[in-house]
Amino acid sequence: MADFGDRALRIGVLGSYGGLNLGDEAILTCVLDGLRQIRPTAELIIFSRHPEDSRRRFGMTAVPYTGVSQSQLIEAETGLDLLVLGGGGVLHDGQAGAIMRPVRLAQELGIPTFGYAIGAGPLTDRAEIRLVREVVKNMTDLTVRDHESILVLENAGVGRPISVTADAAVLLEPEDFTEEMLLREGIDDHDRLVGMSVREPGRAADHLDEASYHELLANAADFMTYRLQAQTVFVPMERGDIAHAHAVLSAMNAPETARILNRAYRPAQIAGLMRHLDFAVGMRLHFVMFAARAGVPVLPLPYAGKVFDFAQAVGAPALTGVARRETGPLLAELDRLWDERDACTERLRQRFAVLRERALQNLERCRALIDGLEVRAAPTAGMGADLGGADAGPVRPQRS
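Request: output the structure for the sequence above.
Response:
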C-alpha cells in the first residue's frame, strides 16, 4: 500500500488528557497503542490540556488546545492527516465547546476526523448542543462507548448512524503492583482487601450530596470491615479524590482499618493492584472497569449513566442512586455479592471478554479509515503531471 510520499502519516489525538484523571490517561495509553499497531511508523501528536504532563508521561510531542489562539491551533493542526477525538467522556457540559473547537477547525482545514469510543452527556447548554450537532454530523466516522451517549447525541439532533463499541481502556494491560508497593502504603497483603473509589461532585455528578454519600460509603466500609474482617483501600483516580476519601474515612466507626493510596501511579499499575483485592465498591468508571477485568466482585455506585451502562454490560449489580437512604439496599447487596463471589467472578470474566472484542472494533474502524486515506493519497498513472509533478504532496481527502 502506498504511503504519504517520503513522510510518515501524522495523526493528532485529542481528549481530556494531561494527567487530570487516571481513567483518561488509561484511555490515551490504549488509543496510542492501537494507533501504533495500525501504523507503527505514524507520527502521533497529543492535543492535551496540560501538554507538559503528556510529554513527560508518553515521551512524545504534545500541544495545547485550550488557552491558545486560532492561529496557534491552525499551526498545530496544519500537516495532520487525521485527527482522532477521544476516547472517553469528552462531550459534556463545560467541556464540549472547548474540545469541539479543534475538531471543527480540522474539518474546515479538510482533515478527516474520527471519534474513538467517545462518551457524551450530560449535555444541556444550547450553544454546546448546536456545536456538537454540527461537528458530529461532519465527522468522517465515529464510535461511542455506551448507549447513554447515543441517546445524548440523538437528543442533540445528531441523525447519523452511530455504533456502540466499548471504552478504549478495556484493552489496558495491567502492570505489576508489588507487595513492596503495598507495604509503602501501609497495606498488609495478608489481610482481605476491599478497594473503594470515591469522587467529587462536579459537572458530571452535580446531584451528589457530599455529606450523604460520604456517610453511605462510610457505612459500607464499616460493614465490610466487620463482615469480611477486611481492610479498606481507597484508590484515588484523581488527586481530588483523596480529600473525599479522607471525608469518608473520618465518618467510619473503624477508620484505623482503612488506608488511602497517597503516591502517584500509572493507570496500568492501578489495574495491577486489582489482583490483590478480594472485593471492590466504586464510583469512578475506570476503577470499576479495572476491577471487572481482574474478576474482582465489584459493586458499582452509578452516579452517572456511563457507570450504570458499564455495570449492565459486565453483569454487575448497581444501586439506583448514591445517597444515605440507599444504605440498607447497599449493605444487603454487598452481603449477597460476597456470598456469590465465585459466580460473580466467572460472570465478570466472560462478559469482559465480550467487551474486549467490542473495543477492538474501534481499532478496525480506525484502520479502515486510515487505509482509505492512503488509497486516496496514492498517485495513479498520469496523476503526477496533473498535480504538478512527482514531488507534489498527497491529495488531502475532503470533509465527508
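Residues 341-377 form the longest helix (37 residues).
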